[in-house]
Amino acid sequence: MLSQLPTSPPPPPLPALPFVAIAGPTASGKTAAALAVAARWPVEIISVDSALVYRGMDIGTAKPTALELAQAPHHLINIRDPLHAYSAAEFVADATRLIGAITTRGKLPLLVGGTMLYFKALIDGIDDMPRADAAVRAQIEHDARAHGWPALHTRLALVDPLTAARLAPADSQRISRALEVFQLSGKPMSSFHSKKSASLSGESDLPSSVDAPQPLLISLEPTDRAWLHTRIAQRFDAMLASGFLEEVKTLRARGDLHADLPSMRCVGYRQAWEVLEGTLPLTELRDRSIYATRQLAKRQITWLRSMPARQVVACDAHDALAQVLARVEDFVESTKT
């Protein structure tokens, strides 16, 4: 679900303003936690999800319902047509602007989602990367056709093990971009993520942020992975029952979308597209999609564990929501002093 990494100049550092973030793997209960917070404090929710930005992709992204959206103002949902990508740099610029505007309105910005690249870009900042090079990309595509994307993933692991560890061996879009960056710059993509903005690590370069409260990052993580797997399966079954395959048929019928777009490479959509193209039997759609979602959740948890300042709440605990509310209450009280 991650969009292509940006090649534009880095955004300005995040303003030294307090905000709360709720992150977690897919199906960990982020929406329920966010709405519980919204019921107690005046907040506006900023979606940190690279799939929720797309219009017409509602069922397969588990987009909040109209009733849920009405419970608090939401931002960065339904802002992009599936034909057009949405980058991490665009997210940082939009989120930074929204955090300032929401704070000015006297409300608490609440960032919620599972696109960890967006969280990392917002927290750590993004350095300027080499622009796309058609010739280099064409050569990478040629190598992939000859050897397969898992072989190129292995090649990436030799030059950029940090990035490779976060990518699936079949994630062609991001493997291609990471190899392209290395070939053009001689540096791994992971080296372009600098610790230079006001961040949850406290390593801010902004003098004015010294006395500002650090943002709160709550990480919903299961103690029992089987609990999460059950929820993933139940949610995908509900999507199928709600007409997910028909949703993808409607998108495909437009005629201008294709399987290599970031929107159509989202988990579930990729497998459904393959079914409609006849390259994946319908009988395998459920198992393939659930397996891919489990792998996504595993990568999301790996990202979260690389964020040492996070406050972990066991999302499978009976009092998980109470724990979230208690931590937010402590944070809100700390901002008053």
Please explain how this structure is put together.
It is a single chain. With 337 residues, the chain is α/β, with parallel strands linked by helices. The chain has helices at residues 30-38, 66-69, 88-104, 116-124, 134-147, 149-159, 161-165, 172-185, 225-241, 244-253, 269-277, 285-305, 320-335, and strands at 20-23, 43-48, 74-75, 108-113, 216-221, 311-314. The chain is built from 13 helices and six strands. Strands 3-2-4-1-5-6 form a six-stranded parallel β-sheet, sandwiched between helices. It starts with 19 loop residues before the first strand and ends with a helix.
Short description, anyone?
The protein is an alpha/beta fold.
**What fraction of the residues are assigned to beta strands by DSSP?**
5-15%
Quaternary organisation of the protein chains: single chain
Q: Give me the count of strands.
A: 6
Can you tell me the residue ranges where pLDDT is under 50 for at least 5 consecutive residues?
1-16, 194-212
Mean pLDDT: 87
* SSE pattern: EHEHEHEHHHHHEHHHHEH
**What is the radius of gyration?**
20 Å
Structural category is alpha/beta
Helix content: 40-55%
What is the straight-line distance between the termini?
39 Å
Task: Count every helix, treating DSSP H or I runs of 4 or more residues as helices.
Answer: 13
Q: Give the strand order of the largest sheet, numbering strands 1, 2, ... along the chain.
A: 3-2-4-1-5-6
Q: Shape from CA axes? A: globular
Largest sheet: 6 strands, parallel
